[in-house]
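Page 42, continued from yesterday. The earlier attempt failed because a stray header line got pasted into the input along with the sequence. Redoing it now with the clean sequence only.
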Amino acid sequence: MNCKKNINKKGFILVETLIVSVFVIGIFSLLYTNLFPLIGEYERYKNYNTVEATYIAHWARVNALKGLPDSIYASVSTNGYLDISDCSIYTNADGVESCYAFKTINNVSKIYLTSYSIVTFKDFVKDNDSFSRSFREYISYLPTYSKNTTKTPASGYYRVIIEYTSNNTYNYGTIEVHKG
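This time it went through. Structure tokens are written below.
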């Protein structure tokens, strides 16, 4: 008499299902823990250096180049930064008019002229409560631009940083200024 044992294979299917389920849950939890912080970082930085902000910063640069006196640039070279939001510091009447029109049309609230390397400006803004929290976060987000040692105020390189409102949110942008 040949007795064959019937092996019950239901336990194998249960173990296989558990292993696949744990693997799939592990993959989803890994994606969840790594993707949500990335989305949060995008939400945090989406108003920084957009195309619109770069164009507005470009026009702030044009206004600064055509209307600011050399004494302002000398002051920036000494201090590391200067608030040029006040249109009365522009020397010629055309510069004053274009400054007021520029600020009104683009909802620009602040314009800063800094040296190309913004280390001094970052140190000033970091713990200064007179600046908004979002502006301090933007400045801390920016690199220092200090690796390029040829771009100094002595060689005519500066940086414009702007703050403007669009759709009731503050947006920020920066662009290089070369006073040749």
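Notes: The longest strand covers residues 157-166.
Reminder to self: strip header lines before submitting.
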